[in-house]
Amino acid sequence: MKRALFSAIASSLALLAILPACGDDDGGHAMPADASADVSAPDAGTPLPLDGGVDSGRSATGPIDRAGRFLVIRTLVAEQKRDAYNAARTFADHSGSSWAPDVSSRLERFDELDESADWSSPHALASVFLTDALLVDTGKASCTESPVDCPSYLDLETAAVGANATFGGRPPNDDAADAMLTLLVEGSGKYHAGCAADRSLCAVRDGVGPSAARRATNVFPYLAE
């Protein structure tokens, strides 16, 4: 069953053209240092910064790449709509956007891969992923029990309100790909039974393990020990 599930997921990822080019890099290219600048939601009259440089081949103004949760644009947004998705304001209402139906339908397709309906309809994560931004609970401290391993990615998105165990965000060492794929395929219940606390228990894996010779710490500026 696991081999068949892995094969189905691999085929699905290939059809959606979402396999990362290397490691855990989203899309195989480095994100600009200011990729998250849009999350401040400036006023409509505020000029947007240049991004991408004069050789980018894109428009000279406005955001060209939104870096929120890992794999969202690659798995849930059709390729021909990604420019519009990237140019949109992060905290705008995207429920009527051209890519909203893509997000809903592709979430349902991932849920079908293990031949089990683990998510309700409409999908509980559709509205969450339409607003693609990392969530951080500043009232929670960073992981103190382990200076390196801290599976906090997607904790705020999947926990009951106020019940998240960690600060969320995305620590440098967290296996975001395995967490994301397992959550989409297996559902929140099975995800919290194992993968949420221990990434080695994720049922759906991308086959890419930790590649750094010295892993980062979970304390800013996240330098290796």
Structure description:
28% of the residues lie in helices and 0% in strands. It is globular and about 45 Å long. It has 225 residues and is mainly alpha-helical. The protein starts with a helix and ends in a 32-residue tail after the last helix. Mean pLDDT is 75; it is low at 15-44 and 46-55. The protein has one domain (2-21, 56-201).
How does the SSE layout of this entry go?
Blueprint (H helix, E strand, L loop, with lengths): L1 H14 L56 H5 L5 H6 L12 H12 L14 H5 L24 H4 L17 H18 L32
The average pLDDT value, as a whole number, equals 75
DSSP summary, beta strand count: 0
SSE topology string: HHHHHHH
Radius of gyration: 18 Å
Number of helices: 7
Distance between the ends:
40 Å
How many domains, as an integer? 1
3D shape: globular
Report the structural category.
Answer: mainly alpha
Beta-sheet strand percentage? under 5%
Instruction: Give the biggest beta sheet.
Output: none
Low-confidence stretches: 15-44, 46-55
Helix content: 25-40%
